[in-house]
Amino acid sequence: MSLQLAYNTTDAPVTVDSAGFQIGGRSWGVVDTTDDRGKAEIGVSLRLVDEDKARAAASEREDVATAVADLDRRRDLADAARSASKDELVEALPAEVVDRLEVGGDGQPSKDDLVDAAVATGEVPESTGSGRKAAKKTTTSRTAAN
User: Fold this and answer.
1) Residue 41: enclosing H or E segment and its boundaries?
2) For a surface tag, which of 17, 28, 35, 141 has the fewest beta carbons within 10 Å of its beta carbon?
3) Looking at 41, 70, 99, which one is the last position of a domain?
4) Are residues 101 and 130 in the same domain?
């Protein structure tokens, strides 16, 4: 996951990742440049313009400040999720989210998929030091099989 700040140059919303995250028309938002859809939008189309975070952070506009804060929040969640183990991530995420992820050779989703899901849901394990307490989840079909 590589998150970038972007500006939507059009009047219409643009879907910027496979999870369905959108940036409204003439608005600021965050794009995951490793996501196929995000990569296509920020790299090829003229709808999204990659913005320098430091320059944007200096802006006094409220919408820009909100987008920069969202970028920081999502990057912090990604860092916290990366520092957790796969087992911690599976435990922290809602069972229905884990069950939708593709299973790898170890019977669990890939670490990258778990990190992406943690960022998308905002659920990171407590042990990561993120300050967010992950609620105890019900057993997923995958953890029950282990």
Assistant:
1) helix 36-43
2) 141
3) 70
4) yes
Q: Binning pLDDT at 50, 70 and 90, where does residue 130 land? A: very low
Phi/psi of residue 8, nearest 5 degrees: -85, 115
Checking phi first, is residue 33 left (phi over 0); if not, alpha (psi -120 to 50) or beta?
A: alpha
| pTM (two decimals) | 0.73
Give per-residue pLDDT as tens, 37-50.
988 888 767 788 88
Residues 69/57, Cβ–Cβ less than 8 Å: no
- CA-CA distance, 39 to 87, in Å (whole number)? 29
Q: What is the mean pLDDT of residues 108-116?
A: 95
Residue 75 lies in a domain: no
Residue 90 · residue 111 · CB < 8 Å? no
Residues 82-100 have a mean pLDDT of: 96
Which two three-digit tokens encode residue 124?
A: 């990171």
* Pick from 76, 23, 81, 21: nearest CA to 51: 23
Burial class, 118, CB count within 10 angstroms (exposed 0-12 / middle 13-18 / buried 19+): buried
